[in-house]
Design a protein that fits this description.
366 residues, Leucine-rich repeat, LRR (right-handed beta-alpha superhelix), mainly beta, 9-stranded parallel β-sheet, 4 helices
Length: 366
């Protein structure tokens, strides 16, 4: 190993776990950042080198990690613990408060501050994952785990508000299965106010249902919700959303009249769903309806839409309990090319689709 003594610019070193190393050998490498070796060798490193370490990879074959082995390694961010390790003493990583990336079996996660973890890789040898294993992983963004745990996804990660990607590994497919992780939220009926603290750092929220009882929403409540694209709410509350991110809005059945200008700023809105049978959209045409192309509503809603909006719609979806489509319901929907009609519809009047010159397909749903 003396051949390496002059290589003081080396940042990574890999030493077999059973190799014999001189006491002063590792201290020749003043710029070490990434080390794979028996953790017992850390005792031979001087304090300054320990403080520079960013990642430590424990070789397979090591069985015990003792207390204070990683003392003075405060800046380590990544740690790999092989499945051969079956004993980790309580204070082994007591001083490692900056670890954000861990690769190990799930049984060893308890030795780390889970609130700091951003990436977790669980080995195939992981036998069990407790339902609350990731309960305090508030900053977890990425996780890789064996495919057999996929069915527990909703239980395992319900409190991981920053988790965006999950990769499930298996022995057959080297690439594994990649899943984008998003969470819906339904606010309980009777809620009166929503504050920013309720949605702080909730990055993976993708849809929200806000009851009509809510009448106060704090400004910037949803500013951290980077993937919030769908909302069910009173349209009067649209102004509190990050409107440029919203792609779908659902209007509760209790809402009867909507001012079209409430949608101003929703420049990426693609779909509106009206749950009420007689909801009326009125007022000045919203110029930000440039991307809208799907409407799900009862026939009377389609009939009352203004002419400019009619020209935008390409897909129409009729609710399951509709029984009747009146004449001229879709008159002059010039760009409509597809419509879903449930089998509950018993009557379609003449000229219901008059002027739909691009209508290519009508599906009668079972």
């Amino acid at each position: 190993m003396s051949d390496y003594c002059n290589y003081d610019n080396i940042e990574y070193i890999d030493i077999p776990y059973d190799a014999e190393v001189d006491d002063c050998f590792l201290n020749k490498f003043q710029f070490l950042k990434f080390v794979k070796c028996n953790p017992n060798l850390l005792q031979k490193l001087n304090k300054d080198i320990k403080k520079n370490l960013k990642a430590f990879f424990i070789p397979y074959g090591i069985k015990i990690i003792k207390n204070d082995m990683f003392k003075e390694c405060e800046d380590i961010q990544t740690i790999v613990i092989p499945s051969s390790v079956n004993v980790i003493e309580e204070k082994s990583f007591f001083y490692c408060n900056n670890i954000t990336v861990v690769k190990c079996v799930s049984e060893n996660l308890c030795h780390f501050n889970k609130n700091n973890l951003e990436t977790i890789f669980l080995f195939e040898e992981t036998k069990i994952i407790k339902d609350d294993e990731f309960q305090n992983c508030e900053n977890l963004r990425n996780i890789i785990l064996p495919e057999r745990f996929m069915k527990k996804q909703k239980i395992l990660f319900q409190n991981c508000k920053k988790l965006l990607k999950i990769k499930y590994t298996n022995k057959i497919n080297d690439n594994g299965i990649n899943v984008e992780y998003r969470i819906p939220c339904e606010i309980p009926e009777g809620t009166l106010e929503i504050g920013k603290k309720n949605f702080e750092n909730w990055e993976n929220l993708n849809s929200i249902s806000i009851p009509l009882s809510v009448n106060i929403i704090e400004d910037n409540t949803f500013s951290d919700c980077l993937y919030l694209k769908s909302a069910k709410l009173n349209p009067e509350l649209i102004k509190y959303l990050c409107k440029e991110r919203i792609e779908k809005i659902t209007i509760p059945k209790e809402i009867e009249i909507i001012d079209e200008t409430l949608f101003e700023g929703c420049i990426n809105l693609k779909e509106i769903e009206f749950l009420g049978r007689n909801t009326l959209l009125q007022g000045k045409y919203c110029e930000d309806f440039n991307k809208i192309w799907i409407i799900k509503a009862y026939p009377i809603v389609f009939f009352t839409l203004n002419e400019q909006l009619k020209e935008k719609i390409k897909i129409a979806i009729i609710p399951d309990d509709c029984e009747f489509i009146d004449e001229e319901t879709f008159k002059n929907y010039k760009n409509l090319f597809y419509i879903d009609i449930p089998n509950s519809v018993k009557t379609i009047k003449n000229y219901a689709f008059e002027g739909c010159k691009n209508l290519e397909e009508i599906t009668i749903l079972k």
